[in-house]
Design goal:
Blueprint lengths: L1 E8 L5 E8 L2 E3 L4 E3 L2 E7 L3 H17 L2 H7 L13 H12 L1 H15 L6
Antiparallel strand pairs: 1-2, 2-5, 3-4
Protein name: Transposase
Organism: Denitromonas ohlonensis
Amino acid sequence: MYLRKSKQERADGREILYLQLAENVWDPTEGRSQAPIVYNCGHADDQQVLERLRRLAKSILRRCSPDEIVADCPDWRLVCGWPYGDAYALEALWRRLGIDAVVRAQASFQALAKGGGKY
């Protein structure tokens, strides 16, 4: 099973995105895989839909940890098991841009200039 986006173009030219839970199933009569929709989640930009998907993800992760999934497949690599929120994203961005090193250097310099010692 997987979560997919589907697009629908309206008569007025607007494009609407929907989120759907789908599953690949082999059809021996057709000789190919089919992807029936298991559940239509709703509009991709609807916050209530996103919150329901977050609750579903939490429920799934309570039953099966990402580490277990990766352990079963040695060629897989766990990149991120769970989003950490705004503070985590900001800290990662600061590190990637090198802002954390600049702030530390400036704080250390200020402390030395005031005679306070090193941080």
